[in-house]
Specification:
It is a single chain. It is built from 3 helices and 10 strands. It is an alpha+beta fold and 152 residues long.
């Protein structure tokens, strides 16, 4: 029995398959960090594709979204749509740059890496974080709803 995304154990793909995937599904590169590269999604303009060759940032974002996406705290997060079986490819709702006048004055204390570039406006016009792998939700426990001032 196999599942979507599985590869027959005797079949190996070379790097040309990965490049083919990127060229077919990934549009323009719109961001690059230490661990990931972000592309426009050619098949759905409302999403981006985050590719991470090594590490767990995609998985951390996916897990957090699955845990709190439907909660009050989840309103601050850009929704994750899909993740590949090994977590190297994450599809997330796209955001657009946030105008300075719309930057929130206070944010949840558990969000980390609070820099302007990690925030945007989603398709519903809400301010959300699109890079939240470095969150500290577990460390804040009962103070998870605490808001702190932000100096943009």
């Amino acid at each position: 029995m196999t599942f979507l995304g599985s590869v027959h154990p005797t079949r190996k793909f070379d790097e040309s398959v990965a490049l083919d995937f990127i060229r077919m599904f990934c549009g323009k590169e719109i961001g690059q960090g230490v661990f990931r590269t972000v592309y426009l999604d050619r098949s759905d303009a409302e999403n981006v594709i985050k590719i991470e060759p090594d590490g767990f940032n995609n998985i951390r974002e996916w897990d957090l979204w699955c845990d709190i996406g439907d909660s009050k705290a989840g309103r601050w997060l850009s929704p994750c749509r899909h993740i590949s079986p090994n977590g190297r490819i994450l599809i997330m709702q796209r955001t657009l740059p946030i105008p300075a006048l719309q930057c929130p004055k206070r944010l949840p204390a558990w969000l980390a890496d609070l820099k302007w570039e990690n925030w945007g406006i989603n398709g519903q016009g809400k301010v959300v974080c699109h890079d939240y792998a470095g969150h500290h939700l577990n460390a804040h426990g009962s103070k998870a709803n605490a808001m702190v001032p932000v100096d943009w």
